[in-house]
Amino acid sequence: MTVAMRTSGWLTAGAWRRLFRDRPVIPLLGLLAVLVAVSELVRPGIVSPSWAAVIVRASVPLAILAGCQTLTMLTGGIDLSVGAVASMAGFVVATLIAGPGTGPAIAVALVAAAIIGLVTGIGVGVFRVHPLIMTLGMSLVVLGLANVWQLQNVQTNSGVSPQLRSLGSGLFLDIIPYNLIVFVPVAVLILVGLRRSGYGRLLYAIGDNPIAARLSGTRGWQVLIVLYVISAVLAAIAGLLYSGLTNVASVALVDSAVLPSVAAAVIGGTSILGGRGGYVGTIVGALILTVVESLLSSIGYPEAVRQVLFGAIIVAVAAAYTRVTGET
Amino acid sequence: MSATTVRVEAARPLEILASWARKNAWTLGLLGILVLLLVFTRLIQPRYGVAGIQGLATSVLPLALAAVAQAVVVISGGIDLSVGSMMALTSVVSASLMDGQSNEFGVAVVLGVLVLGAVLGAINGSLVVLTRVPDIVVTLAMSFVWAGCALLVLPTPGGGSVKWLKDLVIGPLGNEWIPKALIALVLIVVLIWIPVRRSRLGLSIYAIGSNQLAAFRSGVPVGRTKRVAYMLTGLFSAVAGLSLTASTGIGTPVPGPYTLMSVAAVVLGGVSLAGGRGGVFGPIVAVVLIQLMRTDMTFLNLNTNLATVAQGIILIGVVMIGTLIQIRRSRV
Fold first, then answer.
1. In this complex, which of B142, B305, B323 lies closest to A311 when CB atoms are compared?
2. Distance, in angstroms, between A314 CA and closest chain B CA?
3. CB interface of A with B, residues 302-321, below 8 Å
4. Rounded Cα distance, A328 and B137, in Å
5. Which of B316, B323, B326, B331 to mutate to test the interface with A (most CBs of A within 10 A)?
6. Residues in CB range of A231: below 8 A, 6 or more apart
């Protein structure tokens, strides 16, 4: 009797609602599986290990950028400067490899990103500038400075370094993308950090109720400064992978990935109002977006239709979350 | 009773002026800086004159209208990240329909595009109200949708504009110092915004932006007002899109930097991102200031990219000072 009730309980709206709210990753994985199945239906034989490798390779940099959004959105913020910072990192490395070499060039790019993140963090944490405005302003500053740097380096501008190219776009045995070497440690750090470390819990606490967090002794400004430094460094890493993937170094390379990165975090179940979400969902969100892109282009839809459907999917998924969780 | 009030008001014109100035202190301050910057421009480039002013007005028009569009929705407590995409869509629709057509047909197209803009905005607003998803997410997603539609209408830049529309924004009116674009801007804003601002609707927009719950409890229809605010944003975006078609003569399906620039201009123009505060004239002046600053940097032979840097720093700085003032006030 009880068993029967439990089994039928699985089909009730309430159970679905709980599943969606507590384990958003499960329905998301279902959606991903459906999309993969549709891909196979549309183009029989397309789904293969090498197809999966290409999808994963394209998802990795997006998932890292979306990680920046997930972390900042957990505190109720957002980081719109990821595009400028990521492009800057790829570009700086490309201009420096002729001189100091790849290793030091990457170090310079990461340190530059950390400094940018520090400034953003001070603005958001200490001066309480709205994160949207702060990161928007910082992306203008970074873009302008990168352009100045570009004008000074027109002659010495060399291409993307071969190491970055193989790291960003190479496939081990044609099925395992090399960029997983970067992604796996980053993802593990974020996942474990959010679940197990005190710092991770503080991010949730600040986003859920900043006043309560302050009253229980959290120094919010310190948490936020560290957060935006982490976000900028992650963005720089993603930028290096992007420049390796596309074999392009330009000051606007990653700009078009900013809105998809927010979209991946939102689809993954992270609330833009803070306090709810996680990185597993975001990774699945990035995979879903990449599969959708590849599906639409394999059907042969023009870029325009892809964009329209892309936007519609984001609204639909976000609306479903809001309906199910009952939060606004 | 009302007669007394009128007499009292008439008796103290100075005080009324003072209170008006207090209310518009931010905009007046920006205007002051603008005048100083104009004088400075004239000093570093004595030849800056009629041509410069004309060029400034024409280049400023689309961004100024985008800033007005953004200001309306931000005052209502929302934000619309699809302004640039709506501009691109309305611009390509108008350019592709008007290409090689008669002036009379152009009138119909302009009216149709204005309706289209209002519909786009109404869709945004309805989605925000119905789904209860944060505005920033909805309008971000819709920016993809509208940009995609723009690409469907016109895959590559093209189309054309009827002559009278171009004449409306290019060139001087009467006195050579008065650019038509400026007159057009002021007329559009005065004809659409002032009546709204003075009406019950305008009051409701400010009310839901200031405190949604309080507005709801005082009987303001929150959902409907929000929809109308987004609709107005769509309408102004359509006007901005038309001005793009008019000033460039073609339609471009790729959204320009207008969305983020409009947010920046709104903040610089003294509109609070939390809603309920500010007007549309501050953002307009802010846009002119930004554009003139860029021009000055070219005159000074500075790298124009430094203007981007300066713009970012000013944006952050202004908000920082504003927040610090608020924090200090709340402590006192």
1. B142
2. 6
3. 302-312, 314-315, 318-319, 321
4. 12
5. B316
6. A68, A71, A72, A79, A82, A117, A120
Residue B185 domain-assigned (yes or no): yes
Which of A101, A107, A72, A70 has its CA nearest to residue A89? A107
At A4, is the pLDDT very low, low, confident or very high (cuts 50, 70, 90)?
very low
* B325 has a chain A CB within 8 A of its CB: no
Residues 6+ apart with CB under 8 A from A252: A87, A143
Q: How far apart are CA B304 and CA A143, in angstroms?
A: 12
Query: In 3D, which of A111, A118, A97 has the Cα closest to residue A163?
Result: A97
The H-or-E segment that residue A276 falls in is: none
d(CA B291, CA B285): 10
- In terms of residue numbers, what domain contains B226? 49-257
- In this structure, is residue A99 part of a structural domain? yes
Flag whether A272 is in a domain. Answer: yes
- Domain extent, residue A88, equals 24-325
C-alpha neighbours within 13 Å on the C-beta side of residue B166: 12
Q: What confidence tier does B71 reach under pLDDT thresholds 50, 70, 90?
A: very high
Q: Do A140 and B264 touch (CB under 8 A)?
A: yes
Task: DSSP letter for B251, please.
Answer: B
Instruction: Tell me how far apart the alpha carbons of residues A64 and A279 are, in angstroms, rounded to a whole number.
Output: 10
Please judge whether B143 and A134 are an interchain contact, meaning their C-beta atoms are less than 8 angstroms apart: no
B146 with B120: CB under 8 angstroms?
yes
Q: In which residue are the tokens 């964009």 written?
A: A307
Q: How far away is chain B from the Cα of A308, in angstroms, using its nearest Cα?
A: 4
- Taking CA atoms, A247 is separated from A51, A116, B331, in Å, by 20, 25, 53
The string of pLDDT tens digits covering residues A31-75 is 888 888 888 888 787 778 888 888 888 899 999 999 999 999 999
Residues 6+ apart with CB under 8 A from A258: A65, A80, A82, A83
User: What value does the mean pLDDT take over residues A295-311?
Assistant: 82
Q: Is residue A7 part of a domain?
A: no
Does residue B284 sit within a domain? Answer: no
Distance CA B237, CA B146 (A): 12
Domain count, chain B: 1
Q: Could you give the number of structural domains in chain A? A: 1
Q: What is the pTM of this model?
A: 0.82
Mention every residue, 6+ apart, whose C-beta is less than 8 A from residue B78: B128, B135, B139, B226, B229, B230, B275
Only one residue has tokens 């679940």, namely A195
Residues A248 and A254: their CA atoms lie apart, in Å, by 10
Residues 5-44 of A with CB under 8 A from B: none
In a domain, A312, yes or no: yes
- What would you report as the CA-atom Rg of chain B, rounded to the nearest whole angstrom? 21
Residue B186 domain flag: yes
In-domain check, residue B239: yes
For A311, the closest of B132, B145, B306 (CB atoms) is B145
Helix (H, G, I), strand (E, B) or coil at B158: strand
Torsion-angle region of B189 (φ positive above 0: left; ψ -120 to 50: alpha; else: beta): alpha
d(CA A181, CA A178): 6
In angstroms, rounded to a whole number, what is the distance separating the alpha carbons of residues B21 and A217? 43
